[in-house]
Predict the structure.
Amino acid sequence: MNETFDATFSLVQMLWGNIVARPLRSLLTCIAIAIQVILVLLIVGLTSGVLAEWGKRQEGVGADILVQPPNSSIFIAFASAVMQESLGHKIAALSAVDEVAPTLSLSEPKNLVVIYGIDFQRFNALSRGFLFRSGGPFTASDQVIADDIIAQTKHLKVGSQVTLLNHTFTVCGIVAHGKGARYFIPLKTAQDIAGAENRVSMFYVRSKGDIEGARRQILGLAPQNRVLSISEYVSLMSSSNLPQLRPFTRTMVGLGIVISFLVVLLNVHTMVMERTREIGILKALGLTRFGIMRMLLGETVILTAVGTALGIALTFTIQAILKETNPGTPILITAGWVGSATLLALAGASIGAIYPSLRAASYDPVVALAYE
């Protein structure tokens, strides 16, 4: 056991010695692998974080059911105002329905921040109501309520002026986040801006306890519309259920593997060329082809491990910085994707090291010793 441990320790010492003998090249290789890991984790973490955070904001509205037009997008920011506001009164009259809040969804074109046009009393009645950090409800048509995250990001306070949808609004209140949108304006104001008189994008509905019963009644009243429970809607908020995101995610992951493959291939190939005489001496001393490959692949694995650890550490550092500087940009990094990024880095680096290692292992000792 001790002899095996000593042999392994000696091998690691030799591999590490070969790495530190070329510090600049080793550092650049580690940085390239770290970039791959950062690229994968940030891209996946950003898409997952945005979707998860949006799902929580929908749950926070306090509704049980979401009524949308047929063939509507699950991305409420891009919803069209095509539903008659009067449908809300019909839904409210159903026996299984407790409260209905007509909502017009708009988005700021410059940054795609979601803005809700709401009837304050009805929207507020869906749950325990807005939790005001400061200020209060609308008292005029040109006022806006902002949540605390966008207020922190934009340095807003009660009385601040903010330009939304090419109109100037005065902040009348700042509320705790988690009620769907970042900004809330009066429903009539939103309809005037959108040119959607008496029309809305959706209805948030709270049942009297029987969610499925209320859903059936709404479908019986308006069978052409899309009627989902909030839990069903939130379940759709994952990248696996959004085929539009899959090609993007796979492209970013593939790009990361290609970066790792090319950098390691170049590094190991150059290293083999520089160490031709050394490899010849090792083979002359009896080191087998497998031993040569194990040495070069071992160095690659060590560089990959260091680069991966560096990439993971930098990713969490970036996540912490963004959380402080831009809390509206959620990044969700899961243990599963940390493991996947590690395996992807190892796979790309190993594939890149195979060809140079095979070439080194095939050197004739006599020819290698004569190499200058």
About this structure: The chain has two domains: 2-52+244-369, 70-224. The two ends are 41 Å apart (CA to CA). The CA atoms of residues 267 and 363 lie 18 Å apart.
